Structure formats: C-alpha cells, structure tokens
Amino acid sequence: MGKKGKKEKKGRGAEKTAAKMEKKVSKRSRKEEEDLEALIAHFQTLDAKKTQIVETPCSPPSPRLNASLSAHPEKDELILFGGEYFNGRKTFLYNELYIYNIRKDTWTKVEIPNPPPRRCAHQAVVVPQGGGQLWIFGGEFASPDGEQFYHYKDLWVLHLATKTWEQVRSPGGPSGRSGHRMVALKRQLILFGGFHESTRDYIYYNDVYAFNLDTFTWSRLSPSGAGPTPRSGCQMSVTPQGSIIIYGGYSKQKVKKDVDKGTQHSDMFLLKSEEGREGRWVWMRINPSGAKPTPRSGFSVALAPNHQTLLFGGVCDEEEEESLQGDFLGDLYFYDATKNRWFEGQLKGPKSEKRKRRRGTRAEHGGADKQECGEASAAPMEVVREVVAEDGTVVTIKQVLAAPGPAKQPQLDDDDSLEEAVGPLVVEPCPRSNAMLAVKHSRLYLYGGMFETGDRQVTLSDFYCLDLHKMDEWTVLVEADPETQEWLEETDSEEDSDEGAEGGEEDEDSSEEDGAPLGDAW
Q: How many CB atoms lie within 10 A of CB 510?
C-alpha cells in the first residue's frame, strides 16, 4: 500500500512539474506570439485579396520539406499543402495548394480564397465525408529573422468537392504546437504529442485529443496505463482492430545551460479503447518482432495496403556536447499490426527478357542455380556525383543503384549490350529526412525532403512512385535538379539582416512568405 501511494504521489509530482514548465514556456512565448500574430494578420490580408478560385496548370512545386501530401479519397489525385524551404539565410514558408493528377501526370496550383496562414510541420488528414475533406491542425510559423516562433492551434477543413476553406472554431482543443501526429479513427480525429518552442524554452507533449467530426467538438482523452514519454515526429497509425500505434519520435532536454540533449525514441505503444467502457482508453507498451528500423528522427510515414504502416528514411543523429552530425537514411520498412512484426522493404529489381532467356539456356548446362544465387547476392552500388550549383558551391549527391545482374560480369554475345547482360540500373531516392509520402491505389508516392552535405542543407523537389505490390523498382516522376539550388552563406551583416526582415513589402510572391531556419526534428 505504501509503495503504491508513493508511486502515485511521484506521478502527480511529475504532472505538476510538466504543468509548471508549460506555464513558464507559455509566459515567455506570449509576447513573441503577439508580435508574430501581427505579421500573420498582414499575410492573411494579402491572401484576402484573392476572391475567387483560380486553377493554374504548373510545373512541379518548388523544393520543400515538412509539407503534407495526401491522397484524395475519391479521385486519382494527390494534394500538397504548405511546407518550407531554407536557402542558408532565411526559410520561406508556404500555404500553397497543389493538386497532382496521377493519370495525367500533371500539376495544378489551386488558389482558394481565405486559406490557412503559411505553415510547416502541421498535420493533414483526409476523410471521405461530404465528397472528401482535408483536415489540417497546427504547425509552425516564424519571424523572417528566425528568432521568434509561432505555433498554431487552429483547425481547418478543405471541402474538396467545392474547393472551399473553412476554419472550424471549437474550444477545448490542443495548445499550439508542431511536430504532432493526427489520424482519422471512425468519425473522429485523434491527435497525439508534438512540441512548442520559444526563443529560450521548449516543451514536448504526450497528451491525446479527439475531435468529433459529427459534433465538431474537442475532448481531451485520459488513457490509463503507462504511455509514451513526451515527443514529436513519431509514427501514428490505426490498426485493423481500431486501436492506435505510436512508434519512435524525437525529444530533447536541457543537460546544462545552453546545452540540449536529443533522444531518438524507438519504443512502441498501443492505445486502445477499453472493452465495454465507451470513451475510456488504455495505453499498452508492445514489443514487435522482426527487422526493426534503426533509431532515427525525421522519418516519413504512410498507410500501406493490408493495413500495414510504411516508414521511409529519416536521419540518425550523432550528438556530442557542442556538435551534431547526421547520417541520412533512404531505407523502407513495413509494420504489420496484425502480426506485431516489422520487416524491411527490399526491391526485387526489374525483369529483363534477355536475361531470362539467357538464364534458361544456361540452365540446360546446370548453371541456373549458381546464376540465380549470384544475382541475389549482387550488392547495390552507391553512385556519388558532384554538381556545381549556380553560386559555385559543389553539391555531392548520393544515389543507390541496385544492380540485379550477377556479381561477375558475364560474357557478352555479339548482339548483347552491357545493359541487356546485367539488366537496367535501378535508381532509388537518395537518403533524406522530412519527405512527404502518400499511398494511392497501392502505389507509394514520395516528394521532396532534405539532406545535408557539410554545412549546407539541400532541399529536394524530386518525385518518385513505387508499386507496393510488385516492389520491383522506383519510377522517377520528377528528377532532382541540384543545379537550381540557391545557397547563401550566413552573414552577420546588419544590412543583410534588415533587408531580409523588410523584403515582404517589396516582393509579395517570395519574401512575404519568409519564415525561420529549421528548428526541431519534426
């Protein structure tokens, strides 16, 4: 009895500490947010000049990360909203809306009156009600100089049938945050975690909220059991049984003045409703089997066929007291909730009729088994190419090329070419974090993201597709073009700083969208 009482007391103490920290962060950030609210209101005034829907065929969207990419519930379309782009000195934040037509392989920019303000690291969820709705909550905005941050707590819905934005005002919802996760479950939106950052403080969350899509009301859930520690950027997905999976994520804490220590979480939890007790939820920690992803942050998630959850890429940070080194990843994992098992997604490679015929001929001589074994063991090649950007900076691009041919180069017939002998090379997306994923008709679509080379951040605008049933090869829809990358070295010049802060008045299309340098791992 004594032990139990002590444990409960300790738990209440932790809750009080968290409440004090949130109050402290809230007080310090209130003035920052008041300043930024005026700037956001200015941008909304500019958006208010758009009084009618304008749809313009366009080239693919510019490089960005931390946007949202969603599959239309009824049409063969993908919907891209928001995001950010960092050029070395400033970050540009967007509230642009793009539609990708899958069958026609075309992009359209859709300008709709009164859109949500510019943001990144928000969450977007599509539901089929009313001809399709895209729900958006939260996200982040920042001042042009990157010194002040604003975390949204607004809720928006895009009515896809009528192409109209609506802000849904409902009390009792989550506090302002970014890096949170949100899923649709039955006729509810369930939201978990995230973080809030001001100039001097930050706080991570592990709270859970539900938004009822029928009554348009928020409620805070209070699950029993030991749940995940506060974090952002985790995997959140729905199981076939109607429970919710939380995996991984990122958080940081102060270890001493001006020194933070980050944690890349790799634990997994199940949030399920208690049987026979409507509205009651319980946390359970689970330990999946199989080939688990290595610890990472900034990974991307999508729902794959057969209720499996797909995880792509991310970055594994190696932190020292005064420095941070990142190893960017381009691997693919699947989590099967029915089996509670992870497995790595491996591409089979394209089939070649020439190779098939040749293998059949050699089988007559008893060489087929050895040939296939050689093909299976052929290691992927990493091709590194250096491209000189417009500003003279050399950008190193790494691409993984899977060679499905035999380990040893075969003898070529007179009418054979090298490509026919070893099979075509398979190009995969380069390692990256904070990319956008969506699945439609069992095809995975991947857009943008970022990686770092030296002190430079490369923001991507390439676009890929992968058939999740065949798992043979990535199809390149838009190639990466690093030569168009702009990179401005940091400067302490007061003149440059002033110019960046005031540029919005001169150039409505670009500088008005200025934001802040990248902050946390979303």
A: 12
155-159: strand order across its sheet: 123-127, 133-137, 155-159, 164-167
The tokens describing 307, both together, are 């209720």
Q: In this structure, are strands 106-111 and 140-142 parallel, antiparallel, or unpaired?
A: unpaired
As a whole number of angstroms, the distance between CA 231 and CA 295 comes to 14
- Containing 483, the helix (H) or strand (E) segment is none
- 314 forms bridges with which residues in the sheet? 329
Residue 40, phi then psi, degrees to nearest 5 = -65, -40
> Where is 498: in which H helix or E strand?
helix 494-502
Record the tokens describing residue 188, joined without a space: 């509810």
* pLDDT, tens only, 208-225: 999 999 999 999 999 999
* Residue-wise burial string across 132-147, b where 16 or more C-beta atoms lie within 10 A, e elsewhere: bbbbbbbbbbbbbebe
Give the H/E segment covering residue 109.
strand 106-111
> Smallest Cα–Cα separation from 226: which of 263, 271, 194?
271
Tell me the two tokens of residue 309. 């959850």
Phi, psi of 44 (to 5 degrees): -70, -30
Q: Is 186 helix (H, G, I), strand (E, B) or coil?
A: coil
Question: Which H/E stretch holds residue 192?
Answer: strand 188-197
Q: Once rounded to an integer, what is the mean pLDDT over residues 160-168?
A: 97
* Nearest alpha-carbon partner for 97 in 111, 84, 113, 76: 111
pLDDT tens digits, residue range 471-487?
999 999 999 876 667 88
HEC per residue, 226-267: CCCCCCECCEEEECCCCCEEEEEEEEEEEEECCEEEEEEEEE
Contact 99, 79 (CB under 8 A): yes
Of 310, 300, 299, 301, residue with least CA distance to 337:
310
Residues 6 or more apart from 117 whose CB is under 8 A from it? 40, 43, 44, 47, 95, 141, 152
Tens of pLDDT, residue by residue over 180-196, are 999 999 999 999 999 99
- In the numeric block, the tokens 């009482």 are attached to 5
